[in-house]
Write a structure and sequence with these properties.
The chain has 330 residues and is an all-alpha fold. It has twelve helices and two strands. Helix 3 packs antiparallel against helix 8, helix 5 packs across helix 6 and helix 9 runs antiparallel to helix 10. The longest helix has 33 residues.
Length: 330
């Protein structure tokens, strides 16, 4: 038995589910909601029970109820008043007290007696202790309770399904993003392609080996942390693009425009950087985006970015054998 359980736990599908942190968090949230929901349905506060009357009081109450039922059957106002006075004298009650008890008993028609503790007596309680109006109220309340429970279960089902489908929806969204990128093949300018690339980067999708057309516009694209190793960015316009912490190892940057590009924390080699255009105008140290100037502005040690550029320039061993063609970026 233990071996069988172990083999199940080692399946790829279960391991993927366990590693899916958004799904696990969602299931925990749903479990909490479900527990609260069950508690709201089944944890019913107990009703306060009135003290049972003694034998003498019970006899007096029965006589009073029979008297009031007799009066209530009189449809004529004159006869009803006559019997009210007659019954008040018979029961040794003042006329005002009897009339008050009669009025209260009329209001008491809406009161539904407690359900008997013995389940075998529920049917007799429903058909014998309740009048037709009370039976209708009980039936209506139970139907409304059932509808309420079913509606909560429906909402719970939708939430559970929504959470369970998160991985599939993310998979579909990534597939659609790649479709947008492939559809834009042959176009140098495409806002949809930039949005698709940014989405894939936020989902930590690898862009390794990405091939874009020569001269592709990626102006201002937020590719922070992108895995662009061995990507083909030949002639791409990366003007003011955010390449912070991006992996540009062995990426083809030949003729790409790095004017204003943010490369702090990016992985690159000097020879690849020098194969691009305007690499001296890129930002290599920590910087912040300034809306007023619409540019990346270094805020590290004054002159640190210039020193980094000078360091790359002095690395003569990384100079390209043939300077890149940068005429289109001038």
């Amino acid at each position: 038995m233990n071996n069988r359980i172990s083999s199940i736990l080692k399946t790829k599908q279960l391991s993927r589910l366990i590693q899916n942190k958004p799904l696990i968090r969602g299931l925990l949230i749903v479990s909490t909601i479900f527990c609260l929901f069950i508690g709201s349905i089944f944890i019913i506060p107990s009703a306060n029970k009135a003290n049972k009357p003694n034998a003498q009081e019970e006899k007096e109450l029965n006589n009073l109820e029979q008297s009031i039922q007799t009066v209530r059957k009189k449809t004529s106002p004159f006869l009803r008043e006559y019997y009210i006075q007659k019954e008040s004298r018979r029961l040794n009650l003042t006329l005002d007290n009897y009339r008050h008890l009669y009025n209260v008993s009329n209001k008491n028609l809406d009161f539904i007696p407690d359900i008997p503790e013995n389940s075998s007596n529920i049917i007799s309680w429903y058909y014998q202790d309740l009048n037709s109006y009370q039976r209708f109220q009980v039936l209506k309340d139970k139907i409304l309770l059932l509808v309420n429970i079913l509606s909560k279960l429906g909402i719970l089902f939708v939430i559970v399904r929504f959470i369970l489908e998160i991985p599939e929806r993310e998979k579909q969204a990534k597939y659609q993003a790649w479709q947008v990128i492939h559809t834009a093949h042959g176009q140098t300018s495409s806002g949809a392609r930039i949005a698709a690339l940014e989405y894939l980067v936020t989902k930590q999708e690898s862009l390794q080996g990405l091939r874009l057309e020569e001269g592709t516009y990626l102006n201002g694209a937020n590719l922070e942390g992108a895995r662009l190793d061995r990507a083909y960015l030949n002639g791409a316009n990366l003007f003011e693009a955010n390449l912070n912490r991006a992996n540009l190892n062995r990426a083809n940057l030949n003729g790409a425009n790095l004017d204003g590009a943010y490369l702090f924390g990016a992985t690159y080699t000097n020879d690849r950087i020098k194969s691009a255009c305007n690499w001296e105008k890129a930002i290599y140290t920590e910087a912040t985006w300034t809306k007023d100037l619409d540019a990346w502005i270094p805020y590290d040690v004054p002159g640190a970015n210039d020193n980094k550029i000078e360091e790359i320039r002095n690395d003569t061993a990384s100079d390209p054998q043939q300077p890149p063609n940068c005429r289109q970026w001038k």
